[in-house]
Amino acid sequence: MSGHSKWSTIKHKKAANDAVKGSVFTKMAKAITIAVKKGGGVGDPDQNFSLRLAIDKARAVNMPKENIDRAIDKGLGKSGIELAELTIEAFAPDGVMVILEVVSDSRNRVVAEVRLLIEKHGGRMGEPGSVMYLFEHCGIVHTLEEISEELQLEMIDIGMIDMVEDEEGRTIYTDAESMHNVIKYLHEKDITAGGTIGYRPKLNVSVPDPSRVLAFLETVSDYEDVQEVYANLG
Questions:
Q1: In a domain, 1, yes or no
Q2: CATH for 222
Q3: I need a surface site. Which of 98, 126, 127, 171 has the fewest CB within 10 A?
Q4: Between residues 33 and 7, which one has the greater pLDDT?
């Protein structure tokens, strides 16, 4: 099916490297805590699908069980720490458009720090709506396993929009409301898959020297409170 963006492909490799370094645990913990809160305070992954996905991602990078349990407790309000979700729109060098998903215990602090980080590395913050219109909100499912043509046709019937194959596996894009059904279907077929609700650029752009933009994106994604980075770099 259609091609992948350069940044989407690199993110898979980067996630593996971050897992080796252990730097991904903090991000995973926040994702688990938010999943509990968004799930109405349900800390049982069998009753909270978003939490189950977050836990699966944490286990995939060998996050210790005690870390997972602490993150769930935070979501249940047992830690006294309140986390907030923010979506920040920005422009990377060469005008590449970026969406950052951020989770922090201090909205004012994180906005100031992310703005400084972006400007320090050649980008600029955008106003609400300045970038979002060029992205579509969708489900993003990733698997390392082969997906037959027959399974692809069946997934289209339950919400798959597109599938992209590269050296890092297969990325399946779905309607946002259909992502859970697609993952459930893959699991029923004994295919390991995980996913998230995120953003996909409607049109990728090319730049003369993508290394400068990629360095910016990697730097921003390394910031502790940034959960996800989406960019329309082709």
A1: no
A2: 3.30.70.980
A3: 127
A4: 33
Q: What is the pLDDT of residue 10?
A: 77
**Residues 18, 120: one domain?**
no
| Shared-domain flag, residues 54 and 99 | no
The SS3 of residue 232 is coil
Condensed to tens digits (0 to 9), the pLDDT of residues 145-198 reads 999 999 999 999 999 999 998 877 899 999 999 999 999 999 999 999 988 899
Whether residues 223 and 122 fall in one domain: yes
Could you tell me the residue range of the domain that residue 109 belongs to?
A: 84-128+208-231
CB 52 within 8 A of CB 34: no
Computed over every residue of the chain, the mean pLDDT equals 90
Task: Indicate whether 161 and 62 sit together in one domain.
Answer: no
End-to-end CA distance of the chain: 16
Single-letter residue type at 127: E
Rounded Cα distance between 121 and 185, Å, is 42
For residue 226, which phi and psi values (nearest 5 degrees)? -85, 120
Number of domains in the chain: 3
H and E: helices and strands count for the chain: 8, 8
Residue 133 clears pLDDT 90, i.e. is over it = yes
Choose among 64, 65, 75: nearest CA to 33: 75
